[in-house]
Amino acid sequence: MADQASDGGQEKTEEPTQKRLEKSKEDGEVPSSKELFVFSTLLTGFFLYIGIIPFIFSIIFEWSSLFQFSGETSLQDYVFNNLKAGYALMYWKAVLFALPLFVIVILTQMTMSGVINWSSSALNLKASRINPFSGLKRMFSMKALVEMLKAIGKVIFLLGAAVFVMFTQMDKLLTAPATHLVGGISRLGDVFLLLIIAFLLILAVMAMLDVSWQFYQHNKKLKMTLQEVKDESKQTDGSPEVKAKIRRMQMTAGSRAKQRREAMENVPSATAIITNPTHFAVALKYEVGTAGAPIILAMGRGYQAQEIISIGKDAGVTVFQNELLARALFFAGQIGEEIPTPLFTAVAAILGFIYRLNKGDAVDEPDVELPADMLFDENGKSIS
């Protein structure tokens, strides 16, 4: 189990994560089967051969025409012209075979890995590739042993199939020279087809076994320890402590937002709204003759402050402008609680002024003073 242990001694028992799989594709590490490539290309060649059988004689005659000379021109001209035509004939016939084989190779790899993956990192020079000790380790590894057994098995089975086909078709092979040209070629073609079919059957079985083995080895190589899975989860989603802190902050922010929305419903019942005049707004409630200090019903800044002022005006609530007091109430107070003790005097003076103003008395606006520790700028910093 040493090959499945990490540096920390943990066994790689966890299936690879999606991130590990994507990283392996970026590095060019995807499952690939040589036996599947051999089978798919041979199968494609077999179908191409079946496709050209109706044209085989025309191809033979076209080839034989290159060796015919009429004597109308010099022999040297015939030789060069026929060489040129011969090269062109071989080139285009090779292209007709090469293009389908190239497409099949691409599709075969797509069958294995699900996508064509062009990875430049696979071409990078790595010290392990030129390290002789790493090379010796690869030579005597399980992978090398399996490749050697596959090669030996392939030779034995293919050679055995060839001997079997030749033995069963011996009569056709021995009588082929005794018949005419077309008949002899036809008999040899039949034997050749049987030989290819036998090879394909053997290679198909070997390809299926090799594909299963390659997927098993690839998955085994990418397996992770439990600690690696946890570390990757932390890198992707953050540590549990950070996520818990974020959730707490989200819950707190959500709770505050809900509290402020509910507070907006209480604005029409406020006694007064203190503003500065638009950036901050604090709605206060106080019933004359009751014990205790005024209560903060709602407060906000910016758009929310304008909303509080608008709701208050629609409900007939008196709006009083005092920049420093509005900031002090906003930064030092809490919704649903009494105003801070240092602000009692200032708020009492303003509420008294509003009370008498609402009764129709002619009163002057009070000049309130705040304690030094209750003076804030618009960002909540002390300006004392």
From TrEMBL:
InterPro entries: T3SS_substrate_exporter (IPR006135), T3SS_substrate_exporter_C (IPR029025). GO terms for biological process: protein secretion. It comes from the Bacteria. The chain crosses the membrane at residues 36-61, 90-108, 148-167, 191-216. Keywords: Membrane, Plasmid, Transmembrane, Transmembrane helix. Residues 9-27 have a biased composition (Basic and acidic residues). The keyword Cell division does not apply. Residues 1-27 are annotated as: Disordered. Pfam families: Bac_export_2. GO terms for cellular component: plasma membrane. Gene3D superfamilies: secretion proteins EscU. PANTHER family: FLAGELLAR BIOSYNTHETIC PROTEIN FLHB. Belongs to the type III secretion exporter family. This is FlhB-like type III secretion exporter family protein. The lineage of its organism: Bacteria, Pseudomonadati, Pseudomonadota, Alphaproteobacteria, Rhodobacterales.
